[in-house]
């Protein structure tokens, strides 16, 4: 065996996040953010996970560390809109529906369908939709769901920046949800950072193969970066006051969802 890694560590490597501060997000059922923090571990004060990113040979000088944060519901929230509410027939329709309205119409969705993950870590949080009016449509709900995915990602990335003292230059993305053009533009807008989608959306499988290829000398790190490729970069268009207001309102809604299930006992 030449290469062995957990799925998100493999995705980090497959996204060529080789330098300190390089950060990736995998959009699947949940969202999984990892930041390369370099040669020394960073122990989080924000309830994130300190983890080994990879080791490329014997000795601690070859080890890189990462901060990790997990969002429980990303694609799962879209699946609920599809299967639970029936407002879309296929998950791929969510971006087009969300783009049908210019804003969320004051609607906020906290997809705490199985509690909230990082940086909240509250198993008793429950899903919340707030701001409904007679003007609310399924397009507003679709947009609110996309915004919720992006706001959860921002909450984790903000915690990573505090813990590491590093502001990443951009966010690299992969996973099935990264095929959603509207989502990635919205993510760039809410972060105020470029979001780069690589050619290979399945970075986990590629990263595992890349680790093995580097281990046996078949590939170099430059080869891995070249093979991962770069398909498209989404650049922020939203103003800083608008992005901060949107994220702040979502966080206010998230606070209302915390501990909700404890009221049932």
Topology:
Elements: H1 7-14, E1 23-27, E2 31-38, E3 49-55, E4 63-71, H2 75-85, H3 94-98, E5 108-110, E6 128-130, H4 138-164, E7 171-174, H5 181-191, E8 195-197, H6 203-215, H7 221-228, E9 232-234, H8 240-257
Parallel strand pairs: 1-7, 7-8
Antiparallel strand pairs: 1-2, 2-4, 3-4, 5-6, 8-9
Helix pairs in contact: 1-6, 2-4, 4-5
The rounded distance between the terminal residues' Cα atoms is 50 Å
- Poorly predicted runs are none
Task: Sketch the major β-sheet.
Answer: 7 strands, mixed
Strand content: 15-25%
Give your account of this protein's structure.
38% of the residues lie in helices and 17% in strands. By secondary structure, the chain is α+β, with helices and mostly antiparallel strands. The protein folds into two domains: 128 residues, Nucleotidyltransferase, domain 5 (2-Layer Sandwich); 102 residues, ATPase, nucleotide binding domain (Nucleotidyltransferase, domain 5). A seven-stranded mixed β-sheet has the order 3-4-2-1-7-8-9, sandwiched between helices. A two-stranded antiparallel ribbon has the order 5-6. A hairpin with a 3-residue loop joins β1 and β2.
């Amino acid at each position: 065996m030449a290469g062995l890694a957990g799925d998100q560590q493999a995705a980090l490597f497959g996204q060529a996040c080789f330098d300190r501060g390089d950060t990736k997000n995998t959009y699947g059922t949940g969202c999984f953010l990892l930041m390369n923090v370099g040669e020394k571990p960073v122990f989080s004060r924000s309830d994130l996970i300190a983890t080994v990113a990879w080791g490329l040979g014997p000795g601690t000088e070859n080890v890189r560390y990462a901060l990790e944060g997990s969002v429980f519901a990303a694609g799962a929230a879209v699946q609920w809109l599809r299967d639970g509410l029936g407002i879309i027939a296929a998950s791929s329709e969510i971006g087009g529906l969300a783009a049908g309205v210019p804003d969320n119409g004051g609607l906020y969705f906290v997809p705490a369908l199985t509690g909230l993950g990082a940086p909240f870590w509250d198993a008793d949080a429950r899903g919340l939709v707030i701001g409904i009016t007679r003007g609310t449509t399924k397009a507003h709900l679709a947009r609110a769901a996309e915004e919720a995915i992006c706001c959860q990602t921002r909450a984790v990335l903000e915690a990573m920046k505090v813990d590491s003292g590093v502001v990443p230059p951009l966010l690299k993305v992969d996973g099935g949800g990264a095929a959603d053009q509207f989502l990635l533009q919205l993510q760039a807008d809410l972060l105020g950072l470029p979001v780069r989608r690589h050619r290979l959306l399945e970075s986990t499988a590629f990263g595992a193969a890349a680790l093995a290829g580097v281990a046996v000398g078949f590939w170099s790190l430059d080869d891995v970066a070249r093979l991962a490729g770069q398909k498209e970069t989404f650049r922020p268009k939203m103003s800083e006051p608008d992005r901060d207001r949107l994220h702040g309102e979502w966080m206010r809604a998230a606070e209302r969802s915390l501990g909700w299930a404890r009221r049932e006992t």
